[in-house]
Amino acid sequence: MPASDVSIVAFGRPERDDAQSHVLSAAAALGAATRLVTSAEGEDFSSMDHGSIDWRRALEGAHWLVTSASTVIEGETARFAWGAGMTFGELEGSRTVMIADLPKDSSRLAECWGAVIERIRQVHVLFIEPAALDPISQLEGVDQSGLLHEIRLRGLVPHVCTLDGQREALVEHALGSVRAPAGPLSSSHEWLAAFICALPSSGPGREGVERAARAAGKADSPSV
Amino acid sequence: MKGEPFGPTRGGREMTLRLGPAGVPLSCKGRTIVEGMDDITALGLDAMEIQTVRTVQPKNFDQYWQAGILSWDSGLEMNLHGPYYAELLGSRRERNRTLTKMEASMQAGKIVNARHLVYHVGPYGENDPGSETNEQVANIFSGVVERVHQIWGDESDEDDYAAFPWVHKAKPSLVGIETSGRQDLWGTVEEVIEVCNHVEGTVPVLNMAHIHARGHGRMRTSEDYSELFEQVRKQYGGKKFYCHFAGIEHRMGNALHYTQIKKSDLKFEPFAEFLAEEGEWLDITIISDSPLLEHDAMYMLQHYDKARQRLLEIQARDERRIKLAIEAGMSTEELEMLEKEVSESRKGDKDDGAKKTVDKKKKPAAKAAAKKGSSKMMSFDEKADKDDVF
Fold this sequence. Notes:
The complex is a heterodimer. Chain A is 39% helix and 20% strand. Chain A is α/β, with parallel strands linked by helices. Chain A has an eight-stranded mixed beta sheet with strand order 2-1-3-4-5-6-7-8, with helices on both faces. Chain B is 48% helix and 14% strand. Classes of the chains: A alpha/beta, B alpha/beta. At the A-B interface, helix 3, helix 4 and helix 6 of A face strand 9 of B.
C-alpha cells in the first residue's frame, strides 16, 4: 500500500501549529490523504462547539487519528472533542496515534500525561517526543532507558516509540522491540508521519513493525 | 439499609448482578467522579471502579467524599483500582514504592465507600511460581488488609465521621487480588485463590480478559465460565464475585492489547448465557475495562437481558405446552411420550439450520449435565447477538 492510500485525520488547533498538524503536513507531503478536524471558522478552539463535530463522517475510512497530549489543556470543550474523537475512532476502526508532547506550560505535563494514561487503552501508537522522555520517566518513576518498554507493558499499548539523541527510532511493540536509523528526516514528527504511513502495509508481526520503522528512516524528507 | 449490603439490582430469582465502567464514562461531559456517577446511573448501570492510575492527588479527596455520600445515598456500588502497575515481588525499593501508591488508594477507598480495592501483584521477578512465592504475596496482602482496617477506624472516631455513616456502618473495603494476563506476572487463577484462602478480607478479582489470554483463549463457551466459577466456588467458597471484562488480543498466553468486546475472540455471549442459566447463586459485579468503557458495559447488559429473556421464553413455552396437554386430558406419561416423539422427529430433520442448532445443543448439554442437567439456552440466536446494539 503506498502512502497515497493511507488516510490520516488529526484533531488539533486551527492555526496548525501543534505536533499533530506537523505530522499531518509531513504525511500529506508523503502523499497520504489527510484531514484536520478543528474548531469552526471564527470559533475559539478552547471553547469550540465540540458537539458539532460529526466524528463518524470525519473518521470514515481513516487509518489513523492523530492527536497530542497537550491538546487536553487547550480548553474544556477541546478536551471533550479530544476524548470523543478517540472513542469514535475505536468504534469506527481508526487507530489513535497519541503524541506525548511537552505543553507550553511544562508544569502541566502531569495533567496532560494523566489524561493520556486514563485513555491508554484507546491508544495504538504512542509517540513520546524526545523532549518529553525525561519528565515522563520522572513522573512514572522509571529510568529513561526502560520507559518505553515499561509503558508498553503497563498500558498494553501496541506501539510505543520515540527518537533518541543518536537519531535512532526506538519502537517497543507487542512482540518485541525495534531500533532503526531515523535517516535524513529533519524532525521527529516527520519520522512519525513516515512510520504511520508505512505501518498499514508493512505486514504482520515483528518483521512488519521493523519494516515500517526502517521504511520511515528511508523516507525522503518531505518538504513541508 | 443504605450502603452495604447493596440490594439486588438486576437479575431474576436470587442473583444480584451489577455492571459498570472502569472509570468516568467516556461520554461524560464532566470528568469528575460525581459527574461520572450521575452518568452511570442515567445509563441504568449500577457500579463504578475508580482508576487511581498513578497516585491519588490530595486535591481529589473532596470529590471523593462527595462520591462516597452519593454512593451511600443511591446504592451505586463504588470500587477502586490501585496503581495500574505493581511490583510487590520486586526489590525492597520497588515493593515500597508500590505500597506507597497503594496506601493512597486505601485512604481514598474509605472516603469513597469502596466495596473493593483492586490490586495487581506484578512480575514474579526473581521468584519462581509456587507456594513460597504465594506465601510472600499472602504476607504482603495480610498487611494490606490490616492497614485497610486501621484506616477505616473504629467506633471511637464516630463523631469525626457523622456525615459519612458508611465509615462505621459499612464493612471496610475488601481487598481484591486481580488475575494477571501475562506469563511473567504473578496471578494465575490458582495463585490468586490460594492467597485469598490464606488472607481473610481478600477476594479474587477474575479478570476474564486476562484469564482468557493467559489460558491461550480458554473462555469460549458458557461451560468454560461454569467451570471457572465452580472452581472458585469449590476452592475459595462464597457467592460474591468481582470480575473485569474487556476484549483482548493475545498471543502465546500473553495479553497484547485491550480491544472492544466485539473485536475480540473473547465473547460476552457465553458469559451472559452462563449468568442467565446457571448464575442464580451469584452475587456478582462486572466492571467493563474495555477501551469503550460504558458502551461495552451497556453491550454486556443488553446481552445479559437478551439471554435472560430467551430463557424465560423457553420456560414459558414449556409451561404452556404442559398446561395445554393437561387440559387436553393427557397424562404425564403420555405427555412425555409425545415430547419424545417430537424430539425424534426433529432429529430426523435434515435441514442445515436445524442441524446446526442440534449440534450446538449437544455440546453444552454433555458437559453441563453433570452439574445442572440439560441446558435450556439452546436457541441462542447468534445472528441477533451480532447486531449492533448502539
